């Protein structure tokens, strides 16, 4: 294992060789081995200065090697702190479950920090999704969702006030789905969810402890209970911490043949 305390002493003892393989590619593979086989998730890499001294390369070469591994999701940069090995991604399965329930299923400790709430007229697209008249108020809530202390998602949502009167006076750090069912008898039964990609703006990046411009997975979920709309929630998930898995099959069912080949 590389120890920062001995890097400077060794200086260029491990200098990379000139040859057909560029030095940034040689260093990338050395750091890949370090990140995948020697260091635990969340461990700090030696500083850029220490790596330049140990391997006899420029800081630009070090940054290029690290940048490629960041793009692959093996390393993460934290502003003002350094570069760290990435934690395993949480595999998101697209079913109608709360964040709290999903984390508990995975053996992780779910935490919620309420960032703000209010009763306000929602934007037109949300008013339409919730079946509200223009200008009618809804409950707005924004929360930071964590797992084992690590911020994973920023959630900004709107809730129909008729479905949960007085919702904003409840404990909003608990599972929203459990709260709705326990206090209001509202069990969400159906949802339409859209997934897209965005770059983190400055505020979302600060909350998620990532660099501005970092890739995020964005989920918009419009959920109903007894065919009545209840929530319109958007969640921004860290792209370096999440991946989405979904079952797929042909429209033909289990035949394995494209639909046009299936006999009527």
Automatic annotation (TrEMBL):
InterPro entries assigned to the protein according to its UniProt record, in alphabetical order: Bact_HTH_transcr_reg (IPR050679), Chorismate_lyase_/UTRA_dom_sf (IPR028978), Tscrpt_reg_HTH_GntR (IPR000524), UTRA (IPR011663), WH-like_DNA-bd_sf (IPR036388), WH_DNA-bd_sf (IPR036390)
Pfam families on file: GntR (PF00392), UTRA (PF07702)
Keyword presence, DNA-binding: yes
PROSITE patterns: HTH_GNTR (PS50949)
Signal sequence coordinates: none
This protein's record includes keyword Phosphoprotein: no
UniProt feature coiled coil, ranges: none
Keywords carried by this UniProt record: DNA-binding, Transcription, Transcription regulation
Domain HTH gntR-type: 21-88
Name the UniProt record assigns to this protein: GntR family transcriptional regulator
Species classification: Bacteria, Bacillati, Actinomycetota, Actinomycetes, Pseudonocardiales
